[in-house]
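Q: Fold this one first, please.
A: Sequence and structure below.
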Amino acid sequence: MTAIPLRPPRRLVDLTLDGEPVRAPEDSTLLDACRAAGKDIPTLCQGDTLTPKNACRVCVVEVAGARTLAPACSRRVEQGMEVRTDTERARHSRKVVLELLASSTDLSTTPRAAEWIEEYGAEPDRFGADAARVDEEPKVDNDLYVRDYDKCILCYKCVDACGDQWQNTFAIAVAGRGSDARISTEHDAPLTDSACVYCGNCIEVCPTGALSFKTEFDMRAAGAWDESAQTETTTVCAYCGVGCNLTLHVQDNEIVKVTSPHDNPVTHGNLCIKGRFGYQHVQNHAQNRD
């Protein structure tokens, strides 16, 4: 039997959050420390399975002695650090970021966006009717998932999941510069002509609903999507012996989408095309049995 080497204990550092003493592992981020202390810090581009990108800047906090606000999702804790999460400067920054995002993109399916806009007093309409918006029609070029870039905030999480952080397919990347920047396939080809393998891991990490299951997209369009009426059941994928965990989202006795637990040591939230989209045989079997 092979012995499993023990890791050295994680060193703890002392810091203060909003005047309260806190102890946190030295390799953790300010966002980790805030969440452990029960502080609700808004964030959009942060993902628990990806390296922070510092893209959305909604999670900024004020660090004593620092010239600029620090993104809590990537700034590591330090011994003696003094952090304030709810200062006027931090709140104003979050307010402006939310206003800019909501004025240019559709945040209607972004979890907690409306709550944060109200909390920070953001007024997206103050930029007027002429404010530049994405206003792009959803791309429906396959039967598995839809790309609605009108909801995209360019957080790059889908690019990272498709690229070197998980899938290594590199089917999508950032195209264009400045206000013309967008997520695109190579030469803006249809998804069916790209390198996409339809693993759907980009959907898993998308924080705004810009990428969604075709079933969810169609049900939302029909006004039938109701997360409050859905149940979630975690099981093991039956396609192979890897042991990937699946979470089945069921509404009206039908599977409407499949996700995977991010804390699962096998999948870390990732699946292949069969695991994420190959659930029709379950419903066909149930219908035939009925």
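Q: Good. Now the second chain.
A: Here it is, same layout.
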Amino acid sequence: MKRLIPTGDPARPVEFTEDAPPVPAPDEALIRVEAFAPNRGETFLLERPKPGLIPGKDIAGLVVQAAADGSGPQAGTRVVGHPPKGGWAEYAAVPTHSLAELPDAVSSVVAAALPLAGITALRLLRTAGGVAGRRVLLTGASGGVGHYLTELAAGAGAEVTVVTATPQRAERLLALGAAAAVHDVAKAEGPFDVVLESTGGAGLLAALSHLTAGGTLIWFGQASRTPATLDFFDFFSGPEGASIRHFHYAGAPYDRDLATLVRLVRDGRLHPEIDRTEDWAKTAETLVDLRERRIRGKAVLTTGAVTTGVLS
């Protein structure tokens, strides 16, 4: 089978190789991959790939071999999956606790855009607690996580202000339910009960200053790739009783969250923002554009396998 592997060259970060199909563990199903979606964090790993790195965490396709232990979907079932690795290939072995069935109404292209970004958004909102009636500030909102967070938080009753790089990117977020959009976090009109911060650097400090007394900043990324420097005395003179919480989405099982995301898409309550859909022959170019922030929302690559479903 074909598989994409790292090259170590930032200008062309992956290339095709021939590989044997994976041999699933007893609790894994073998999936014929129809579509996959890279994440920006994966592009950073490809700059200096560690030996043995086999990328690919967000996939959709068809179960061709059910798990030997009897768990999970049966052969012939369309699924979305979040394997720990190896998804950028014609076949992938995926733990059944990281799979969810797809209805006919949700295509593999749409489903592939869901896992990492969608799970992150769901779990961030759970970490934030009830957001109905609360003011929420979201930085780095133009990416896949930002689009999901905006729609989910607004749908739950939050008043969401998003920070984006351009007015064009703000338009879609406003359509998804954001109450306001700014292009400089310092100009956000606070105070905010919750700040969801994904940029790091100076942006984190500016976002922190917008918290209300007792508010919470949840730090879930560093898209700027610049560390934040926090001065104790500046923080002490800021919002009284404010707190900073670290967040990382990872932790199986993922099946229930995947099923929730699929249900929301099926019911028209969640709309994945897919800026680009390409044949996987263009994966290397797409990864560069994703790394350089030239893609809004998600990019999805297709392997040429037949994709069913009506949403695209």
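Q: Anything worth noting on the second one?
A: The first strand starts at residue 2 and ends at 6.
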